[in-house]
Design a protein that fits this description.
May play a role in plant defense. Probably has no oxalate oxidase activity even if the active site is conserved. By secondary structure, the chain is an alpha+beta fold. The chain contains three helices and ten strands. Strands 1-2-9-4-7 form a five-stranded antiparallel β-sheet, with no helix packed on it. Strands 6-5-8-3-10 form a five-stranded antiparallel β-sheet.
Length: about 170
Protein backbone atom coordinates (compact mmCIF):
# COMPACT_ATOMS: atom_id res chain seq x y z
CA UNK A 1 0.00 0.00 0.00
CA UNK A 2 1.26 3.48 -0.81
CA UNK A 3 2.16 5.44 2.36
CA UNK A 4 0.02 8.38 1.30
CA UNK A 5 -3.05 6.11 1.23
CA UNK A 6 -2.59 4.82 4.79
CA UNK A 7 -5.23 5.97 7.27
CA UNK A 8 -5.84 5.62 11.02
CA UNK A 9 -8.38 2.81 10.45
CA UNK A 10 -5.57 0.66 9.01
CA UNK A 11 -4.20 0.50 12.58
CA UNK A 12 -7.49 -0.13 14.42
CA UNK A 13 -9.90 -3.00 14.96
CA UNK A 14 -12.58 -3.49 17.59
CA UNK A 15 -14.53 -6.44 18.89
CA UNK A 16 -11.82 -8.71 20.30
CA UNK A 17 -13.56 -8.30 23.67
CA UNK A 18 -16.75 -9.93 22.36
CA UNK A 19 -17.25 -13.66 23.13
CA UNK A 20 -17.80 -15.84 20.08
CA UNK A 21 -19.94 -18.89 19.41
CA UNK A 22 -18.32 -22.16 20.52
CA UNK A 23 -21.19 -24.36 19.35
CA UNK A 24 -19.15 -26.46 16.94
CA UNK A 25 -17.40 -29.84 16.85
CA UNK A 26 -14.35 -28.56 18.75
CA UNK A 27 -16.17 -26.35 21.27
CA UNK A 28 -13.90 -23.42 20.54
CA UNK A 29 -13.67 -20.36 18.33
CA UNK A 30 -10.64 -18.32 17.33
CA UNK A 31 -10.93 -14.61 16.49
CA UNK A 32 -7.76 -13.67 14.61
CA UNK A 33 -6.37 -10.18 14.35
CA UNK A 34 -3.70 -10.43 11.66
CA UNK A 35 -2.52 -8.43 8.69
CA UNK A 36 -5.53 -9.82 6.79
CA UNK A 37 -8.00 -7.76 8.84
CA UNK A 38 -5.66 -5.14 10.33
CA UNK A 39 -3.44 -3.83 7.51
CA UNK A 40 -1.37 -1.72 9.90
CA UNK A 41 0.30 -4.93 11.10
CA UNK A 42 2.07 -5.27 7.73
CA UNK A 43 5.82 -5.81 8.35
CA UNK A 44 5.47 -5.41 12.15
CA UNK A 45 5.89 -9.10 12.99
CA UNK A 46 3.06 -9.36 15.53
CA UNK A 47 -0.59 -10.45 15.66
CA UNK A 48 -3.12 -11.48 18.30
CA UNK A 49 -6.07 -13.84 18.62
CA UNK A 50 -8.88 -14.36 21.09
CA UNK A 51 -9.81 -17.98 21.74
CA UNK A 52 -13.14 -18.85 23.35
CA UNK A 53 -13.62 -22.36 24.76
CA UNK A 54 -16.78 -24.10 25.89
CA UNK A 55 -16.37 -26.54 28.79
CA UNK A 56 -14.44 -29.50 27.28
CA UNK A 57 -13.69 -27.35 24.24
CA UNK A 58 -10.37 -27.65 22.48
CA UNK A 59 -8.20 -25.68 20.15
CA UNK A 60 -7.06 -28.91 18.46
CA UNK A 61 -3.45 -29.85 17.72
CA UNK A 62 -2.02 -27.36 15.25
CA UNK A 63 1.15 -25.52 14.36
CA UNK A 64 2.11 -22.02 13.28
CA UNK A 65 4.87 -22.37 10.67
CA UNK A 66 5.86 -18.69 10.82
CA UNK A 67 5.43 -17.74 14.48
CA UNK A 68 5.99 -18.55 18.11
CA UNK A 69 2.93 -18.01 20.31
CA UNK A 70 2.48 -16.72 23.83
CA UNK A 71 -0.88 -17.59 25.40
CA UNK A 72 -2.47 -15.61 28.25
CA UNK A 73 -5.46 -17.13 30.09
CA UNK A 74 -8.05 -14.45 30.84
CA UNK A 75 -10.75 -16.78 32.22
CA UNK A 76 -11.00 -20.47 33.03
CA UNK A 77 -8.66 -23.45 33.32
CA UNK A 78 -6.78 -24.80 30.31
CA UNK A 79 -4.69 -27.92 29.84
CA UNK A 80 -2.07 -26.95 27.24
CA UNK A 81 0.95 -28.55 25.67
CA UNK A 82 3.33 -28.90 22.78
CA UNK A 83 5.52 -31.65 21.40
CA UNK A 84 9.15 -31.07 20.49
CA UNK A 85 10.54 -32.30 17.18
CA UNK A 86 11.44 -35.88 16.27
CA UNK A 87 15.11 -34.90 16.68
CA UNK A 88 14.44 -33.94 20.31
CA UNK A 89 12.65 -37.23 20.98
CA UNK A 90 9.08 -35.94 20.65
CA UNK A 91 9.15 -34.61 24.21
CA UNK A 92 5.77 -33.47 25.53
CA UNK A 93 5.69 -30.21 27.49
CA UNK A 94 2.41 -29.59 29.31
CA UNK A 95 0.83 -27.46 32.04
CA UNK A 96 -2.55 -26.70 33.55
CA UNK A 97 -3.10 -22.95 33.29
CA UNK A 98 -5.40 -20.80 35.40
CA UNK A 99 -6.57 -17.21 35.01
CA UNK A 100 -3.54 -14.95 34.71
CA UNK A 101 -1.13 -17.69 33.61
CA UNK A 102 1.03 -17.51 30.48
CA UNK A 103 2.53 -20.32 28.35
CA UNK A 104 4.80 -20.15 25.30
CA UNK A 105 4.59 -22.40 22.24
CA UNK A 106 7.80 -22.31 20.17
CA UNK A 107 7.56 -21.64 16.44
CA UNK A 108 6.50 -24.66 14.39
CA UNK A 109 5.78 -26.97 17.35
CA UNK A 110 2.50 -28.91 17.33
CA UNK A 111 0.44 -27.62 20.25
CA UNK A 112 -3.10 -27.50 21.65
CA UNK A 113 -5.31 -26.12 24.41
CA UNK A 114 -8.19 -27.91 26.15
CA UNK A 115 -10.69 -26.42 28.61
CA UNK A 116 -10.72 -28.75 31.62
CA UNK A 117 -12.91 -26.40 33.65
CA UNK A 118 -16.66 -26.55 34.15
CA UNK A 119 -17.17 -23.01 32.81
CA UNK A 120 -16.22 -21.28 29.55
CA UNK A 121 -12.61 -20.16 29.19
CA UNK A 122 -11.01 -17.29 27.28
CA UNK A 123 -7.38 -16.88 26.24
CA UNK A 124 -5.46 -14.37 24.17
CA UNK A 125 -2.63 -15.54 21.95
CA UNK A 126 0.05 -13.19 20.69
CA UNK A 127 2.08 -14.40 17.73
CA UNK A 128 5.49 -13.29 16.53
CA UNK A 129 4.32 -12.69 12.97
CA UNK A 130 1.73 -10.50 11.27
CA UNK A 131 0.49 -13.79 9.73
CA UNK A 132 1.69 -16.82 11.70
CA UNK A 133 -0.23 -19.27 9.52
CA UNK A 134 -2.05 -22.26 10.94
CA UNK A 135 -1.93 -25.94 10.09
CA UNK A 136 -4.53 -27.92 12.02
CA UNK A 137 -3.14 -31.45 12.05
CA UNK A 138 -6.27 -33.63 11.74
CA UNK A 139 -8.00 -31.28 9.28
CA UNK A 140 -4.89 -31.15 7.12
CA UNK A 141 -4.22 -34.89 7.04
CA UNK A 142 -7.78 -36.21 6.90
CA UNK A 143 -9.50 -33.32 5.12
CA UNK A 144 -7.09 -32.60 2.27
CA UNK A 145 -8.45 -31.86 -1.19
CA UNK A 146 -7.97 -34.12 -3.03
CA UNK A 147 -7.77 -36.72 -0.27
CA UNK A 148 -4.55 -38.52 0.57
CA UNK A 149 -4.79 -42.19 -0.41
CA UNK A 150 -6.20 -44.04 2.63
CA UNK A 151 -3.44 -46.67 2.27
CA UNK A 152 -0.79 -44.00 2.91
CA UNK A 153 -2.44 -42.75 6.09
CA UNK A 154 -3.29 -46.29 7.25
CA UNK A 155 0.38 -47.23 7.01
CA UNK A 156 1.57 -43.96 8.62
CA UNK A 157 -0.82 -44.23 11.58
CA UNK A 158 -0.82 -48.05 11.75
CA UNK A 159 -4.60 -48.09 11.48
CA UNK A 160 -7.05 -50.04 9.39
CA UNK A 161 -7.91 -48.42 6.06
CA UNK A 162 -11.61 -48.33 7.08
CA UNK A 163 -10.74 -46.18 10.12
CA UNK A 164 -8.86 -43.77 7.85
CA UNK A 165 -11.79 -43.56 5.43
CA UNK A 166 -14.11 -42.85 8.37
CA UNK A 167 -11.79 -40.05 9.53
CA UNK A 168 -11.63 -38.62 6.01
CA UNK A 169 -15.43 -38.50 5.91
CA UNK A 170 -15.47 -36.73 9.30
CA UNK A 171 -13.05 -34.09 8.08
CA UNK A 172 -14.62 -33.59 4.68
CA UNK A 173 -12.18 -35.31 2.29
Amino acid sequence: MKPELVKADDFFISGINIPTNTDNAFGSNVTNVSVENLPGLNTLGVSIARIDYAPNGTNPPHTHPRASEILYVAEGILYVGFISSNIDGNRFFTKVLHKGDVFVFPKGMIHFQFNIGKTPAVAFASLGSQNGGIITIANTLFGSNPPIMPEVLAKAFMLDKDVIQHLQKQFGA
